[in-house]
């Protein structure tokens, strides 16, 4: 069982599994790598925690019911309880633009819960975001 479920949040058990997997990746690799290496490592770690996923998922973006383009999200991860969108960063600190981007992707995708995970800070940063 994950050490990070928080019943205040929807899909808490699932997000807890993802956070636990991210913590293992961060402990193994440490800081300083680029985003794609953390993505690859997380892709290897998620199944060990019972989490299925698809990497680099394209979502359609609409304006007034018209499709105007597509954006890529890092992961859609899930289990029997549902799915969450996961965005990965590898920077010294999360910035407001990271939250805005993740929330915009979450709204465009239709998913209700997203995780913003930053592997590049002095300590692993994780933010749960609800749509």
Descriptive report:
It is a single chain. Helix 1 (12-29) crosses helix 2 (35-45). The longest helix is centred in the first third of the chain and has 18 residues, at 12-29. 31% of the residues are buried. The protein is built from three helices and five strands, in the order ααβββαββ. It has a single domain, classed as Lambda Exonuclease, Chain A. The mean pLDDT is 91. The protein has a five-stranded mixed β-sheet with strand order 1-2-3-4-5, sandwiched between helices. It is α+β, with helices and mostly antiparallel strands. It has helices at residues 12-29, 35-45, 96-109, and strands at residues 52-63, 66-79, 82-89, 113-118, 125-130.
Walk me through the topology.
Layout: H1 12-29, H2 35-45, E1 52-63, E2 66-79, E3 82-89, H3 96-109, E4 113-118, E5 125-130
Parallel strand pairs: 3-4
Antiparallel strand pairs: 1-2, 2-3, 4-5
Low-confidence stretches at least 5 residues in length (pLDDT < 50)? none
What fraction of the residues are assigned to beta strands by DSSP?
35-45%
Distance between the termini: 26 Å
Which structural category do the helix and sheet elements fall into?
alpha+beta
Task: List the helices and strands in order.
Answer: HHEEEHEE
Strand order of the largest sheet: 1-2-3-4-5
Number of helices: 3
Per CATH, what is the topology?
Answer: Lambda Exonuclease, Chain A
Which whole number gives the mean pLDDT? 91
- What's the number of extended β-strand segments? 5
Whole-number tally of structural domains = 1
The CATH class is Alpha Beta
Shape: globular
Q: Helix amount, in percent? A: 25-40%
Rounded radius of gyration (Å): 14 Å
CATH architecture: Alpha-Beta Complex
Q: Tell me about the biggest sheet? A: 5 strands, mixed
């Amino acid at each position: 069982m994950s050490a990070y479920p928080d019943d205040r949040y929807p899909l808490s058990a699932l997000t807890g599994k993802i956070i636990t997997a991210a913590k293992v990746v961060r402990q193994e690799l440490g800081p300083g790598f680029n985003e794609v290496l953390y993505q690859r490592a997380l892709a290897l770690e998620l199944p060990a925690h019972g989490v299925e996923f698809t990497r680099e998922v394209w979502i359609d973006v609409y304006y007034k019911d018209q499709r105007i383009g597509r954006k890529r999200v890092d992961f859609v991860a899930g289990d029997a309880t549902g799915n969450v969108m996961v965005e990965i960063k590898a920077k010294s600190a999360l910035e407001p633009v990271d939250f805005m981007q993740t929330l915009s992707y979450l709204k465009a995708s239709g998913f209700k819960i997203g995780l913003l995970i930053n592997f590049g800070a002095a300590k692993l940063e994780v933010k749960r975001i609800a749509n």
